[in-house]
Amino acid sequence: MADEDRNLVEILEEHTEIDIAKYINYVSAPEAGAIATFSGTTRDTFDGKAVLELRYEAYVPMAIRCMKSICSSARSSWNLVSIAVAHRLGPVPVGKTSVFIAVSSVHRVDSLDACKFIIDEIKASVPIWKKEVYSNGEVWKENSEFLERRLDLGKKDGICNEKDFEAQRHIRKSCCGAKVRVVGEGDSVISKHEAHQDL
To answer: Of the residues 55, 62, 101, 158, which has the fewest C-beta atoms closer than 10 A?
Structure first.
């Protein structure tokens, strides 16, 4: 079976919950000695504000293409058996999963490292946008990985160490580069400090 046949990438319609067991079962295999997972869930507060839900929008064809490219990049760096990635669109209430990743490999180091790489790359470059809805308002958010990537792209410094080289190598492989959310008239604009939030 070709590597791309061992990847499952899905963007789920509004109000469709992520079936975690489905994705774990997909990556399970007799040769896999490890399955690493990441489940991004909506938390109830951010910077002291009560969060009611997150809302996600995406440019779906490009988002799927980008996530498939990220899976290919992960395969080129680690020895992986299978990869499954799912991301919800629309409202995601507190405590519910908005993104889920499962990666299997023969040895745990490969699946653990690849899983972290995949979520970091999704947050940095895939055209999926997040709005936080509070009890007293709402705001579009940029992920910290996106902001860091944007800042790094503006630097002209050389690569300092092996870890920097690995990150730069993956940045160049990303299909989408930086993601952009156009802010319309009347939309909130947030500072870098306010935008810093992880799942």
So the answer is: 158
β-bridge partners, 53: 93, 133
- H helix intervals, the chain: 20-27, 60-77, 108-125, 144-154, 162-173, 192-195
Q: How much is the average pLDDT of 170-191?
A: 45
pTM of the model: 0.75
Q: How far apart are CA 54 and CA 51, in angstroms?
A: 8
Q: How far apart are CA 118 and CA 173, in angstroms?
A: 12
Q: For residue 157, what are its two tokens?
A: 């410094």
Taking only the tens place, the pLDDT of each residue in 61-98 is 999 999 999 999 999 999 999 999 999 999 999 999 99
Pairing of strands 7-12, 80-88: parallel
Q: Is the dihedral of CA 120, 121, 122, 127 positive or negative?
A: positive
| C-alpha distances out from residue 106 to 29, 32, 36, 111, 169, Å | 10, 5, 11, 8, 24
Grade residue 199 by pLDDT with cuts at 50, 70 and 90. Answer: very low
The shares of helix, strand and coil residues in the chain, as percent rounded to the nearest 5, are: 40, 30, 30
